Amino acid sequence: MKKVSVCVIAGMVTIAGCGEDSTTSTVTFKVVDTFQDKCYNDRGDEMACPSEGDRFYGQDAQYTPTAPSYEINSDQTVVTNLNTGLRWEKAHHSTSVNYSDAWSYCDNLSLGGYTDWRLPDVKEAFSISDFRGRAGSTFYIDSAYFDMAIPTEGTLTGSHTYSMMGQTWTSTVRPDNSNLVYFINFLDGHIKSQSKTDPSVLFFYRCVSGAPGGFTNSFQDNGDDTVTDNATGLIWQKANGEQGANDYQFNWEEALSYCENLSLAGQADWKLPDVKELQSIVDYTRIDPALDTGVFTFNKTPGTSSFFWSSTTHGDNTAFAAYVCFGPCDSVSGADIHGPGAQRSDPKLDDGTNYSSGIGDQRDVVQINNYVRCLRGNV
Predict the structure, then answer these.
(1) Are 192 and 177 in contact (CB under 8 A)?
(2) Could you tell me which of 217, 328, 320 has the C-alpha nearest to residue 275?
(3) 213 vs 216: CA distance, rounded Å
(4) d(CA 248, CA 253)
(5) CA 23, CA 196: separation in Å to the nearest integer?
(6) What are phi and psi of 105, to 5 degrees?
(7) Alpha carbon distance 117, 111 (integer Å)
(8) DSSP letter for each residue of 102-160
(9) Does domain 70-209 have CATH number 3.10.20?
(10) Residue ranges per structural domain of the chain
(11) 290 three-state secondary structure
């Protein structure tokens, strides 16, 4: 795989290497690996990971960013994320509760010698997701450290099954509706949203301890069509990718190829971000785009949805890849069911299937040709 010239010195990241003229910044927001370890083609077939220059090169499993690192305390109750310093409940609460009760439980929790427990925000919760998952067989959270279980009771609607019902509350409020908050589903990997005021909405919960605010971006416009996030040490393409004149949308294979072949700001080691890297730049205080437009540019085709491809194949259907909504996460009815910054998946190619009625119980828009913003600095 291609390597970015990155030097790490005592918690500092040097993007250009370790020479005299290198610019360093303290990494305060570590974006860790998704743990995806297999490669797939655009029809969902598992394949040997391709060589540079071959089709489908540059997908998630071919890059190895900072590895997740956890430690369990002596009484087996608390998991410390050694990359972030945050402490998590190891236990899974098998009884789902409404938002108010989840908030109260965490706020009053004393565990492992700590009393500063709280509901995590959406970036904190997504940081412990694990994309080796597959609904019904493997959790989207590392079961070597965290307890998790498929529920055996509760209300099911539409095509939902218990193996999909791992919704877990976060504290992040949707910017377009203060009655809704985001949740992470550790049984299917998605980020979506639900009512925090409806007492009948019952989800799982997992409390976190440690200083909040560690997942705050610090963007710098480099003046060369790139943006550095000084919090993560990652460098981003300032404007989203363009296939041709005013053509900003790509299928998944095209997205991989575009980033692998991009030459920008004198550098050629760009890649399509994995789903955690991509989600790291969402601004959950903004609606459309859910992005800091003070530094980033979004060239959007009228009438399309603000979906951006990741390099991460989605385990529940490997013919699909994960994307992040950098605007309304549209349904075909025109309603934004899930919220800006939600994470879903789309087919990797147009095989002729008619998706005009959407997919899933919420009838999610299927776009297939999505937007791209390339990355360098996390391999």
Answers:
(1) no
(2) 320
(3) 6
(4) 14
(5) 43
(6) -60, -50
(7) 8
(8) HHHHHHT--BTTB--EE---HHHHHTTB-TT-BTTTB-SB-TTTS-----S-S---TT-
(9) no
(10) 70-209
(11) coil
Q: What is the pLDDT of residues 169-192, one digit of tens each?
A: 999 999 999 999 999 999 999 999
- d(CA 118, CA 195) in angstroms, rounded, equals 19
Q: How many residues does the chain have?
A: 379
**CA 281 to chain CA mean position, Å:** 9
Taking the model in full, what pTM does it have?
A: 0.92
Q: Which residue has the tokens 């955690």?
A: 276
Judge contact between 36 and 312, C-beta under 8 A.
yes
pLDDT digits (tens, 9 = 90+) for 320-360: 999 999 999 999 999 999 999 999 999 999 999 999 999 98
Of 128, 132, 123, 139, the residue nearest 182 (C-alpha) = 123
Question: β-strand 343-347 against 226-229: which pairing, if any?
Answer: unpaired
Question: 310: how many CB neighbours lie within 10 A of its CB?
Answer: 28
CA distances from 148 to 33, 67, 92, 97, 190 (A): 20, 21, 5, 16, 16
| Integer Cα distance of 356 and 211 in angstroms | 45
CA-to-CA distance for 195 and 179, rounded, in angstroms?
A: 6
* H or E stretch covering 324: strand 320-325
